Amino acid sequence: MKLKDFPSDIREFIIPKPQGRMHYRCLGCRKEFSINELLYICPECSSVLMLEIENLSEILGSDGRQWQRIFDFRKMINHQALKGIFRFYEFIAPVIPLEYIVYLGEGSTPLVRANSHLKELTGRDFYFKNDGQNPSASFKDRGMACALSFINYWARKNNINRVLSICASTGDTSASAALYASYLEELLSSAVLLPHGKVTPQQLSQPLGSGARVIEIPGVFDDCMKVVEALSEKYHVALLNSKNSWRIQGQESFSYEICQDFDYSVGDKVVVLPIGNAGNITAVISGFIKFFRAGIIRELPRIIGVQSEHADPVYRYYLEDDPDKRKFIPVNVKSSVAQAAMIGNPVSMPRVMEVVDEYNNLAGEKRIFVVQVKEQEIMDCMIIANRNGNIVCTQGGESLAGFIRAIREGIVEEGEIGVLDSTAHMLKFITFQEMYFEDQFPPEFEVRPREELKNRPVLIRPETLRVCPEPGKVLDKEEFSIFVKDTVKQIAELLDLRPKTDKIT
Predict the structure, then answer these.
(1) pTM of this prediction?
(2) C-alpha distances in Å from residue 78, one per residue of 103, 127, 278, 409, 497
């Protein structure tokens, strides 16, 4: 749709202009810092930072209904920079000129409604939001699009012609960072640190294919993160982990899309997502807060964070109901099928503490919960979901397991509708499906496949055949006729097919 075809009262708002003022705010000493330099931690006290839009109320200047119309009309404009997460430009990064925005197809991921079997299984209506349909096949692209757009703008504004981007990863972050850096190859080069042997082959192949320098080190993600943090403190690099506050800003778009997908009525929704490094749940909570404060939504949805019992520091923290008695204690993680969430010391934990309290206060009641699930439940739920029309990863299985657990614990009420985050495409974690089907999980995973969920290929090769087709070898007419006839007969027996001469009932 062309701009001239929009209603006249909305036309001036469709193509936004940079009019925001933003700063970093430290969650420790509460000091504010300019965005004119790349900061990842507070220069004064080393605490985590969050970004704030100073003049958000001034930028908004409209009621919630007007913003709904702006976003709904903006969804129809054929403008590259506004096709993805920056449809919600004013709420994400209203300082970046549109010409610097990097768009690779991220955002606008589909909501897929659960079929009748999954509804019966859970006793509730729910949807998967398939963030595995982002360009690098994970939700990380939302944050990376924002972070790299800002770096693109910042570097060119300051006449910086070469930047090294770096991140620690369990797979998804490295794939996303390398992909977006490769798009800006004249400005950026990319390096990623991975825990040796803790990343699936599919995920390892992604940064390699994007041309990144891939470095493996012993340990788990938490160890990689410490090394990357030390590098970012001592050298000129652009850190692309969720410690980078611009990543959080971009990932808020997940919430905004949910609001728009449900016509801005989310009071009866339950958003379920894995916690991992806690950046995504921070972003999701923060996004709903912004829309609520702007009057775009009238009620706040229930939010449920999920952790495996093999990596559950946030769950343990919120087991204590009394906020004054809570104490965050990192945990040593054990092997988990939800590799992206296998983090014992989440970088964004201070952010979570901040936004959870604000969210519950705005709602006037407790609306955020954390549940714990077993590794067995995660794998079973991934397999079950994908046998019912979905493409969820192990973290998506974790979301479904958490939804079921929350229903059993009475957290989810009758009539509430689930929105489950499948953070990545199932093909990135196909190794775990193969291990499940072949019953090859090492004991430390504590996963025993359910026989009814296993699936393997069946070789049909009739014993009556003297020769079979093979590359470079053509059967004669009689041999091929025998091959087809006997193969069809065995497949029909295997699948219990009925001849067309029988009446269908």
Answers:
(1) 0.93
(2) 13, 28, 34, 46, 50
